[in-house]
What does this fold into?
Amino acid sequence: MTTYICVTCGTQFAETDEPPPACPICEDPRQYVPESGQAWTTPPELAASHRSEIRDEGGLTGLGMEPGFAIGQRALLVPHGARRLMWDCIPLLDEAGAAEVERGGGLSGIAISHPHYYSGMVEWARRFDCPVHLHADDAEWIMRPDPAIELWEGETKDLGDGLTLIRCGGHYAGGTVLHWAAGAEGRGALLSGDIVQVVPDVAHVGFMYSYPNLIPLPEAAVARIAAALAPYPFERIHGAWWGRLVPRDGAAVVQRSAERYGRALRGAL
It folds into this structure.
């Protein structure tokens, strides 16, 4: 029995004797199955070909993979009491990555923005004996169920010590961001995955239903994201990949980007 990993999105599936017939996450319009077809790997194969990459990311520790794999996101380790919370997740759990987590006292939990980054969440949760916080609206996309997974409902979840999960929707029904009140030297930070997408023009952010397939969101969905974030002050926005950082005026950047998005859909730019 093997926990197969989708090569295209990095999601780890429940144990089976043979690879799954398909990856529902990749068959969804927000992702894709390559022209070459569905492909699978296993944790030992992944560990043999890849290694953890650890970098500073705007004052947080980032944990990614080298060479890049699947969607290529990196996780962030956020101070949370005596330990750290893992924000988003990667498919690889090796000794170098585990040692970095242990240096910070272990994990208080794992919180993930949306199903494209569920990846190796169960492996990490089992290794560090911690819960995985996922929004219940995205429960259908859990490909490897496990008792460590805790589904939450509603619009916000207070994790304590200044960390708050906020359901924004948009990219996925349960699309979630993390507000870190102590981030940016006390001015607040938003860890957004790609629910709020950090783009090259850091004076703005982006919003999409599908990024690889360039399917936009309706204006009302983007307005809802902006409204959900309006009560929270934040200076920085940490995106999903290395170097994706809005360094200043994050809250204003989100609001004016949502307004620009609406104007674009109405042909009023």
The chain is about 20% helix and 25% strand.
